[in-house]
Specification:
Shape of chain B: globular
Order of helices and strands of chain B: EEEEEHEHHEHEHEEEEHEEEH
Distance between the termini of chain B: 57 Å
CATH architecture of the largest domain in chain A: 3-Layer(aba) Sandwich
Number of domains of chain B: 2
Largest interface: A-B, 92 and 82 residues
CATH class of the largest domain in chain A: Alpha Beta
Strand content of chain B: 25-35%
Order of helices and strands of chain A: EEHEHEHEHEEEEEEEEHEHEHEHEH
Number of helices of chain B: 7
Number of helices of chain A: 9
Radius of gyration of chain A: 22 Å
CATH architecture of the largest domain in chain B: 3-Layer(aba) Sandwich
Largest sheet of chain B: 9 strands, mixed
Largest sheet of chain A: 8 strands, mixed
Bound molecules: flavin-adenine dinucleotide
Distance between the termini of chain A: 59 Å
Structural class of chain A: alpha/beta
Structural class of chain B: alpha/beta
Strand order of the largest sheet of chain B: 11-10-9-12-8-1-6-7-13
Shape of chain A: elongated
Oligomer: heterodimer
Chain lengths: 325, 264
């Protein structure tokens, strides 16, 4: 019997999708509902029953009357610690969000427990021991990790698992007043949201991304035009963002955005593993590149080999015709 | 003001997988002959951040700390040629196969010896194991606040303002020294060492420590994570290449194919 603590995060009134994915992973591992407690982190949760009730689990622990200062990890690590001390779990699952990726190591080192960070999957052996699988070296290799401490922490990459949607269970919510000293020297003053015209990269059904092979910022105008026709969002590789052709908010990959659109269309991106780390879960990958040996064609379903300067006009003209139809 | 930057020497992350062997005895990466090591890219960003703070504040001493089995002096002295003042190196064979837990403990003991520092900077993660655990763990161990993924840092007396990259935008935070900050590539390109820097670095001797010097015995070194396998992920490369009379035609056929498959 496991005692699993799943962290969920509520940003304002937005419940992060991670908790649904973690519950789905636990479901794959045949962990039953009565082994799971979901701990929610967020502001003034006592007023948010309606949102918390959407989580398909049987037990929720939430703190009440707390201002988390925009989910400040320095505050939340204290709060999460006291929830952990309360529940004494032997497994902790956290989604690798802005908050989760800070919180997981913080908790691991506070309690001296092992952590599999950026975990892509968990395997269970015949003794019910868990092994975490995580990419290393930018995803060029995979590693399997057994944690040797009594409590194990897994920080799981988002968008790898589908959401668990079980309408048959509804949670019992326990609100707790935590009286810990949550003061911290570090305060979030403000969040500046990206100006995104059109569809957000993370939400788009179709993403068209450009790489270093485009040679400069100008060709992105063509990508914009294609995106307009397809109702798609535009993304870029790190090489493009580091060169300043596009803002870093367009970067897809290990250290950029993690997306999983239905169609990911790349132009002049070689498909380095660090790039694929952010888009490898796309349903369909289609690539234009002049180098048939480029890594991207290991992931692509369809490829167009040649100079984008010639291929894109043919592609765009045809799209325009298709759209007219 | 005293700044510490923690850095790591790593196998060049841009080399193809085929240039690296995996040694399953202790699970380590073994670069093939001729494959070079570099300073972890994000650590160079952290060095750059430290140097810019020095330029704007003036009275700043920057120390650099690294742990490892071996160091290539050309690589590990780069921060000195970029403009840092001191280099501390902890050298022991066992550090090659140590997990984040051990590394944090050794860093902690070293800082107790060479510190204290007002500000500790680290790269957001190391490009070999991609763990992103050490800086945050070190902050926890040192009982410091931690701000990750900085793209700008401004310091005014004890007050520090940080812009950090989050998905969907930027967060502006304020904190007070001492604090630990991890730096991301959004901070901007690190500088190249100039000739004068290289000459100055040549004259600075790194200060070496053994684990013994730090009061750590081999018995204290226990990984808490056990690696059981490392492998190259399988790719099923059955890409269909679009045909056409010329490249324009390939573009055209690609659009038609995507429509045919209902992808657009
Ligand atoms: C720690 C770390 C983290 C990283 N994180 C990320 C990340 O988050 N995201 C990311 O993208 N990268 C990341 N990288 C960088 C990554 O390793 C690659 O360097 C980068 O993705 C390369 O970008 P690219 O594909 O645009 O450029 P390149 O690899 O240079 O590829 C350019 C492609 O364009 C093609 N090309 C050139 N000219 C033409 C033409 N005229 N017509 C058609 N095709 C053409 C070439 O054949 C080539 O395939 C990271 C690296 C490290 C070390």
């Amino acid at each position: 019997m496991n005692k699993v603590l799943v962290l969920a995060e509520l940003n304002g009134n937005d419940l992060d999708n991670g908790v649904f994915e973690l519950l789905s992973l636990l479901n794959n591992l045949n962990v039953s509902n009565d082994e799971i407690t979901v701990c929610v982190l967020g502001d003034n949760l006592q007023d948010k029953d309606g949102i918390l009730k959407q989580i398909p689990c049987s037990k929720i622990l939430a703190h009440s009357n707390i201002d988390t200062n925009n989910l400040n990890p320095n505050i939340l690590s204290k709060l999460a610690s006291s929830m952990i001390e309360d529940l004494q779990p032997n497994k902790i699952l956290i989604s690798k969000t802005n908050l989760g990726q800070d919180l997981a190591p913080r908790l691991a080192f506070k309690f001296g427990w092992g952590l599999v960070n950026d975990c892509l999957n968990i395997e269970k052996n015949e003794n019910n021991d868990w092994t975490g699988i995580r990419p290393i070296f930018g995803g060029n290799f995979m590693s399997k990790i057994n944690i040797k401490t009594p409590t194990e922490i897994y920080c799981v990459r988002p968008k790898v698992f589908d959401s668990l949607t079980d309408k048959t269970i509804s949670p019992e919510i326990e609100y707790k007043q935590f009286t810990n000293d949550l003061e911290t020297k570090t305060k979030v003053l403000k969040r500046i949201n990206e100006q995104s015209e059109g569809i957000k990269l993370e939400d788009a059904d179709i993403v068209i991304a450009g790489g270093r092979g485009l040679g400069g910022p100008e060709p992105f105008e063509t990508l914009d035009e294609i995106a307009g026709l397809l109702n798609a969002a535009v993304g870029a590789s790190r090489a493009v963002c580091d060169a300043g052709w596009m803002d870093h908010s367009y970067q897809i990959g290990l250290t950029g955005k993690n997306i999983s659109p239905n169609l990911y269309l790349t132009v002049a991106i070689s498909g380095a593993s660090q790039h694929m780390a952010g888009c490898g879960n796309s349903k369909h990958i289609v690539s234009i590149d002049k180098n048939v040996e480029a890594n991207i064609f290991n992931d692509a379903e369809f490829g167009a080999i040649g100079d984008w300067k010639n291929i894109l006009p043919g592609f765009l003209d045809t799209l325009k015709d298709l759209v007219k139809e | 003001m005293k700044i510490l930057v923690c850095v790591k020497e790593v196998i060049d992350p841009e080399v193809p997988v085929s240039s690296i062997d995996i040694d399953s005895n202790g699970w380590k990466f073994v670069p093939k002959q001729g494959v070079s090591t570099v300073l972890n890219g994000f650590d160079e960003n952290a060095i750059e951040a430290a140097l810019q703070l020095k330029e704007s504040i003036g009275d700043v001493e920057i120390s650099v700390l690294s742990l490892g089995k071996d160091f290539s002096m050309d690589v590990i002295k780069k921060p000195l040629s970029m403009g840092c003042q001191n280099l501390f190196l902890v050298k022991d064979d066992i550090l090659e196969t140590s997990d984040s837990f051990v590394i944090v403990n050794v860093l902690y003991e070293t800082i107790n010896k060479i510190g204290p520092f007002d500000l500790i900077l680290c790269g957001r993660h190391a490009s070999d194991w991609d763990n992103a655990q050490v800086p945050i763990g070190l902050a926890e161990k040192l009982n410091l606040d931690c701000v990750t993924l900085a793209k700008s840092i401004e310091c005014n007396n004890n007050n520090i303002t940080i812009e950090r990259v989050i998905s969907g935008g930027i967060e502006v935070l304020k904190s007070e020294l001492p604090v630990l900050i991890t730096v991301s590539n959004e901070y901007g390109e690190p500088r190249y060492p100039n000739l004068r820097g290289i000459m100055t670095a040549g004259k600075i001797q790194p200060q070496f420590f053994s684990l013994e010097d730090l009061g750590i015995s081999a018995n204290d070194i226990n990984n808490i994570n056990e690696i059981t396998d490392i492998y190259i992920p399988e790719k099923n490369s059955n890409c269909e290449f679009i045909k056409g009379e010329d490249e324009y035609d390939i573009g055209r056929n690609l659009a038609l194919k995507l429509r045919d498959k209902n992808l657009i």
